[in-house]
C-alpha cells in the first residue's frame, strides 16, 4: 500500500473519530461519502502545493 494512501486513510479515520467524539455526530453513508470527497479534494490541494 502506498504511504500517501495510508496517511490519507489514517487522517480520514481520525477526522471521523474527532467528529463523533466532539460533536456526537453519527455520520450516515451519504455524509461519509460527502466527507470523503471533501477530504480527498483538500488532500489533493495540499499535495499540489508541496
Description:
There is one protein chain. The chain is mainly alpha-helical and 50 residues long. The protein has one domain (3-45). The protein is 84% helix and 0% strand. The protein has two helices and no strands. It is elongated and about 35 Å long.
Write the layout of secondary structure elements.
Blueprint: H1 3-23, H2 29-49
Order of SSEs: HH
Count of beta strands: 0
Radius of gyration: 12 Å
Give the overall silhouette.
Answer: elongated
- Per DSSP, what share of the residues sits in E-state strands of 2 or more residues? under 5%
- Low-confidence stretches are none
Question: Class by helix and strand content?
Answer: mainly alpha
> How many domain modules?
1
**What percent of the residues sit in helical stretches (DSSP H or I)?**
over 70%
Number of helices: 2
Q: Which sheet architecture does the biggest sheet show?
A: none
Report how far the terminal alpha carbons are from each other. Answer: 21 Å
Multimerization state: single chain
Query: Could you report the average pLDDT, rounded to the nearest whole number?
Result: 77
Keywords: Membrane, Transmembrane, Transmembrane helix
Amino acid at each position: 500500500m502506498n504511504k500517501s494512501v495510508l496517511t490519507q486513510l489514517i487522517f480520514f479515520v481520525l477526522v471521523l473519530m474527532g467528529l463523533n467524539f466532539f460533536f456526537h455526530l453519527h455520520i450516515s453513508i451519504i455524509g461519509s461519502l460527502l466527507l470523503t470527497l471533501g477530504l480527498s479534494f483538500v488532500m489533493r490541494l495540499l499535495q499540489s502545493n508541496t
